[in-house]
Amino acid sequence: MTNPDAPERVMSEEPTSAPGLAQTPAPAARAAARAPTAPIAKTGRSMTLGGLNAYYGATHAIKDVSLHYPANEVTAMIGPSGCGKSTVLRCLNRMHEEIPGARAEGRVALDDLEIYGDGVDVTSVRRAIGMVFQKPNPFPTMSIFDNVAAGLKLAGIKGAHTKEVVERSLRGAGLWDEVKDRLSQPGMGLSGGQQQRLCIARTIAVAPEVILMDEPCSALDPIATLKIEELILELKRDFTIIIVTHNMQQAARVSDTTAFFYLGELIEHAPTEMLFSTPEHARTEEYVTGKFS
Amino acid sequence: MSATTLQGISVRRRATDRVARGVTLALTLLALVPLFLVLYYLLKEGLGAFSVHFFTTDPTGRFLGDPGGIRSAIVGTAIIVALATAIAVPLGIGVALYLVEYGRRSFFANTVRYFVDVMTGVPSVMFGLFIYIVLVVAHIGGTFAAWKGSVALALLMLPVVARSSEVVLNLVPNALRESALALGAPRWRVIFRVVLPTALPGLMTGSMLAIARAAGETAPLLFTVAFVNGISTDVGQQMNSLPLQIFNDVGQAQDRLVQRAWGAALTLVLMILFVTLIARLVQRRSGLQP
Question: Which one of A41, A88, B188, B222 has the lowest number of neighbouring Cβ atoms within 10 Å?
Fold first, then answer.
């Protein structure tokens, strides 16, 4: 899917230096970051892992992973259960450290901004790098509208034109036409697939540059899955997408490059077609041909 | 022949089943006997005391003539318990929030949990004595005062509120916290915008059960508020209350005063029943089920 607007957007982004990550002890900078910023379609940014190690207590879950996620592309991370692909994903927006006893070492960068740098405000990291979870999880006490607006409110973004942002985000998530007449109804009343697209709308309302997806379709039926996959291909015009999936067909359908993980190590990262047709490593070949799972 | 035959239940098993059912049913009924007797006497003696006069006049304290009703006791109990709730509920929910959101499994949090449990088991008379020594004997803001009774009741309610709130907050799915954090929310905003609204019905239920428990306590008030007849809305003064009205009347030599005690007891039970019913309704509307 090509987009004629994309190059223009890249150019218009060029002169205004890309926003950095807020530092914790600089309230003025944070206030500036909160200034009225209506999320306009913008371009994604690349991410880079350098020698990433992650632990759960004494368990060494991720072993020295280095990987580059190109901007405005879909990168899929595949591998058998427990291979560490979700852990890598959670290290990318520092959600990993929310688990008691979990820690990560090494370099994680958004373009050239160090995510784990000293004094980096973790909330600014997560605003720049959004996340969609495995199970659709709209906030149960909120309406459809408030669920999308919640992203703005929770992130402390004030002055934005909430109504516009909600509509644009719902349109962006391909949900607007289905819910525009019942925005005040509870988000929990939607079907599973709609709930997941609501969560995607909630994520893009904050205007991130990267969207992480942790098996976003594993709780959905095939038709809802198809809709999300189509959505992913549209979203990559504006965002960098990194998706964890246990479904190899899905990886083949949506991703530009695919990374194969095994036992906490990155085995192979290649253009998706190449990884599935002519994998370099024996392990990869065994996995993609279904010899083990 | 390998065909399976389906056998009927043996006579012996039928008999065992019947005996087991009979014994458990009999024990259940036996346990219900005191409950029904209490309710029976409460209604029999208490309803006789009810009248408009009973609810709209204060006790006169006279030995002869009209003994008066229990208006001041109802008002006093409402004020004392309301103030105790205003102290105990925010504190208790605060403790629970700390334990669930910040302390988690740390040594300090576990120590707090342990002492909260110990506090739940402290007899209510201890809280009364404690406040008596610390606030009444020490003459802090006078001697006996309604607010001191409220503090004693709040101490009694605090562990109940903290423990029940902790259970409810733990029921809030972690996925909700994570998705809010992943949107770039600071933790305090996650708590105020996602965790507390989701847990609200359960928090209310726990608080109401604590209120219901505190409303009937006599001992914490005995040493802190003291008993007066007249109506008062000044929490710095002595105040009447239902438990103390009952305590006072039941020992009197006059039948009509004893009957007033029954009436006051029935009133108290009905008030507690009302609060408990609301708690149940709120619980039913909550999405979080243990």
Answer: B188
